[in-house]
Structure formats: structure tokens, C-alpha cells
Amino acid sequence: MNQTLADKVKSRKTFAIISHPDAGKTTITEQLLLFGGAIRQAGTVKGKKSGKFAKSDWMEIEKQRGISVTSSVMQVDYDGYQINILDTPGHEDFSEDTYRTLMAVDSAVMVIDSGKGIEPQTKKLFKVCRMRGIPIFTFINKMDRDGREPMDLIAELEEVLEIDAYPMNWPMGMGKNLLGLYDIYNNRVELTHPEDNGDNDFLPLNENGEIEGDYAIKKSTIYTQAVEDVQLLKEAGNTFSEDAIAAGELTPVFFGSALTGFGVQTFLDAFVDFAPNPSAHVTEADETIEPTSEELTGFIFKIQANMNPAHRDRIAFVRICSGEFKPGMDVFINRTGKKIKLAHTTQFMADSREQVETAVAGDIIGLYDTGNFQIGDTIYEGKKAVQFEALPQFTPELFMKVTPKNVMKQKSFHKGVQQLVQEGAIQLYKTYHTEDYILGAVGQLQFEVFQYRLLHEYNAEVEMTPMGSKIARWIEPEDLDPNMSSSRNLLCRDRFDNPVFLFENQFALRWFEDKYPNVKLTALL
Ligand code: G4P
């Protein structure tokens, strides 16, 4: 049967899983791939053990994986949907790319370790999702272990992340005593160990919210407690609202165990019900491009350099926003006006060397790039030029001083720095008076990639001096008095010449704010 473009778009669900390292992102991804037929999954889900390599080994890992796009996008068929899961690397792979990936999804799944609650990286990634107003689904993981009280976890989620939570189900016990899930949304109880009188993984609930019939579990205090908790949630908790979920104001919360698979399918079924289809995108000219609009448009949110010196090529990741991609078609890059044929050079994933036959809004394609693309570029097929709104910049947290090792190579050093900065690989600052180069990043890996690429692509060796983590805050130029600079902060300019202070720590920032109460300091995202 020939599907129309609208049908295809409706079947797409594109999301990222956000979590702090070790919360269980890989394990749940594997479960999701198992439930669906994985259509394309290059390599393993992630270099699963990559977190255990020493930092200096990362280039070796890249080589082993071929190229680290191997796990960047996974496609799964489930219940008539094509689900695109975008990886957001944690561990030492964490970088601005991780944040930018969140610009290319329509929803996010937040995985939380029930023993740990909200952890720093989850908070950072959540903030970016929140800023976009995309729906966020919460999976509280590791219920097969003793963790924190569910009520505490919900309260913490609401307080720390400032979002309303709605439990879709409620755990009946935890750890060894996890009897099952009281499934509020589906009005049933899902048992961890079905009782032996028949096929009863799922027991329906009556109008009093109790299991109907004669089951041993009803005598358990754990069950009674769960029924009471749910009563309390129904009376005092948030009300379920599909609109609030769609607006990213209410997060549906699911409990489960990725490791044992318990609760994962229940989560997935509700997820495909409520996760949005590909959304419309707004252009710089304030036009809205609908995903079902006929002409192909898309934007580049990530460029993955191939670290293998034998191949200078890169992969540019495009989020398709409208139209339909077909191999061999011509597109324009808005920034340069250049026309490019998306022919044999277009591959979904470098590792499998698989050719994409078709792709529509919500899908991600990887374009083989020899230097034509930059992050934030819009591609379009039609006669009319399209430029989507710029991708946001993120506040870097780690800084390095950088100088060329060889003064004779100044020119290639500057060229390389400018290009990598433009590409979005790293951020550049200059000290206010002496114009020393300072690099800013959100993850350590960005520095290593920078150093490596400068050497291999621009033949410039660099000296890097770590400055550690700093808090960057921008100041309005008219508020700036260079005497505000002290030993606890460093005054710089960003690449657009805007003044910015790099504070040593929270204390130094607060000291500054107390001293200059009328000065407004701002952060990027
Ligand atoms: P990440 O991608 O978020 O970093 O986490 P990952 O899935 O790799 O999981 C981190 C650790 O937590 C793994 O154990 C994994 O087996 C465990 N884990 C994930 N989900 C659950 C769960 O539902 N219950 C329990 N009990 N453990 C879970 P590891 O020992 O670090 O890794 P491995 O050597 O077993 O692979």
C-alpha cells in the first residue's frame, strides 16, 4: 500500500532519552529495541563499555566503532509507528552536541534512578527540553532494587525541576518486595509474578480501585499501602491533562525496571499514545513550515567528525522538517546558496553503509560531508529559500587557555580555530585586555576533539592549559566598568565581542551580585 506523506509523518515519533550516567539509559534503549523490530541500529546500542575507557583512549574507541555515529540514531518499528531514538551521550562524550540533539526531537524520556533521584546531568538536559516546551515522559528505573520512597521521588522531581508530575502507575513495594505496578492509567494491576491460578499478569480494578476477585496479593500490606497511596494521589495530586503533557508542563511518570523489563511495555504503549508526531518548524522570516508540506526542508544539528586521519569526511546530521527525502535529489544550503546532490554520498549511518530510501519529517539522515555544512544550516528543495530559526548557544562550563605551539603556524592556528568555532565544535573567548584565546565547552571531550582536529586538519599543534570549571555570565556593555574585574573573575569577550565574566565559583558570582545589585548578569541556556 502506498502511504501518503501525511500518513508517514503521523507514524513518526522522534525522541531522546535523557538521564544522568548509570541511571539506565542504555538498558532501557535495549529493551525498546527488543519490543520493536529494530529497523536500523548501527553497532551496539552504545559502546556499552565505553564509559569504562580512560579518556585518552577515546580516539581508539572511535576507530573501533568506525565512527561514533554508530549509535547516534536508532529506528524501531512498534505498533505501526516508526520510532526514532536519538542518543544523547553521557559520560565523557557529553558535549554541546548533546544539547543540540535535543533541538531535533519532538519529545524526551527522562530516566531516573530510583535510588538516586534527580542528578546533575538530568537537570541540565531537562532544562533544555523545558526551554523548548516539548513533552517530557519520566521513567523511574531500578524498582527491582530498594530505592527511595516513591512519594519522595515525585516531590523531588516537582521541586527541583519545577514541573508538575502525574504518576501513570504506582509501585507496589520495591526491591525483592516489588509485587507489581498499580496501573492508574490503564485501571489494572500489573503483577511482577503472576499468581498461579491462570494467565493473570494484569488484573482489572473495580470502581473502588481494588482488584476484583480472590487473589492472595489482596492480603498483603504492600498492596493495601499502594491502594491508599493512589487514593491520596487521586485526591491531592495533579489532574491528568493531555494538553498539559503536550505543552511540557506536566510529566507523566512511570515506574519500572529496565533491567528486568518490568513496566517497560506499559510505558511504551502509553508513550506512543501521547508522544507528539513531528512538529511544525518556524523560519527566521516567521513562517511556519508544516511537516506535511511537500517540499523537503531540514536543519543540521550535529556534525560528527571522523577521527580517522585517513578519512577527512564528516557526517552532518539533518533533522527533516517537511517533504520527503529521496536519494539523488538536489537541495540548497541556505547559508551559502550552494546546490548539492544528495546522491550516493548520503548514508544513514556510516557504519552499516546503508542507503536511506526515503525519509520524512521527524526522521534523521546522515549526510556525508566534505566541508559544505555547518551546524544550524537549513537545507531546502524548493525555489523559495528557507532558513529555520538559529539553534541556541549553551553556557560553557569548562575552560582552557589555548596557544599555538609553533609561532610559524599562527595562520593555520587562527584559521582552524575560526572554523571549528563556526562549526559549533567549541566556543571561543578572548581576555578583555590581552586578547588571549580561551576555549569554552560543556564537556571535556570537546577540547580533545578540538586539539586533535586542529593538528590533523589544520596542521597546527596547540598548547592547552586547563582553567577548570567557571561560571560564565554576560553583562550589558553599558553596565560594564572594567574595574569590576577582580581576582575572582576573569573579564572576557565572546566571539561577537560581548563582554562576559568567568567567575571562579558560585561564591564569587554571589559576591559580585551583592556588590553590584543593579547590574544584570545573564547566562546562555
Ligand atoms: P546509562 O546508559 O544510563 O549509563 O546506564 P546503563 O543502562 O548502562 O545502566 C547502568 C547500570 O545500571 C548497569 O549496571 C545496568 O545493568 C544497571 N541497571 C540498569 N537498569 C537497571 C534496573 O532496572 N535495575 C537494576 N538493578 N540495575 C539496572 P553495571 O553493573 O554498571 O553494568 P553492566 O556491567 O551490568 O552492564
Head-to-tail CA distance between termini? 45 Å
Can you say what the CATH homologous superfamily of the largest domain is? P-loop containing nucleotide triphosphate hydrolases
Q: Trace the largest sheet across and list its strands.
A: 2-3-4-1-5-6-12-7
Please state the CA-atom Rg, rounded to the nearest Å.
25 Å
The pLDDT mean sits at 86
- Main beta sheet strand tally, sense and closure: 8 strands, mixed
**Proportion of residues in extended strands:** 25-35%
Any low-confidence stretches, pLDDT <50, length ≥5? 40-71, 345-353
Structural class: alpha+beta
Number of helices: 12
Cofactors, ions and other ligands in the entry? guanosine-5',3'-tetraphosphate
Q: Tally the structural domains.
A: 3
CATH C-level label of the largest domain: Alpha Beta
The CATH architecture assignment of the largest domain turns out to be: 3-Layer(aba) Sandwich
CATH topology of the largest domain: Rossmann fold
Shape: globular
Fraction of residues in H or I helices: 10-25%
Question: How would you describe the overall organization of this protein?
Answer:
It is found in: Cytoplasm. InterPro entries: EF-G-like_DII, EFG_III/V, G_TR_CS, P-loop_NTPase, PrfC, RF3_C, RF3_dom_3_sf, RF3_GTP-bd. Belongs to the TRAFAC class translation factor GTPase superfamily. Classic translation factor GTPase family. PrfC subfamily. This is Peptide chain release factor 3. It is built from 12 helices and 31 strands. The chain is of the alpha+beta class and 525 residues long. It folds into 3 domains: 15-70 and 91-274, 3-Layer(aba) Sandwich (Rossmann fold); 281-380, Rossmann fold; 398-522, Peptide chain release factor 3, domain III (Alpha-Beta Plaits), CATH 3.30.70.3280. Helix 10 packs across helix 11. An 8-stranded mixed sheet has the order 2-3-4-1-5-6-12-7, with helices on both faces. Strands 27-24-26-25-29-30-28-31 form an 8-stranded antiparallel sheet. Strands 19-18-23-15-16-22-20 form a 7-stranded antiparallel sheet. The two termini are 45 Å apart. 24% of the residues lie in helices and 29% in strands. Residues 40-71 and 345-353 have low confidence and may be disordered. Bound molecules: guanosine-5',3'-tetraphosphate. Guanosine-5',3'-tetraphosphate binds at residues 19, 21-27, 90, 141-142, 144-145, 257-259.
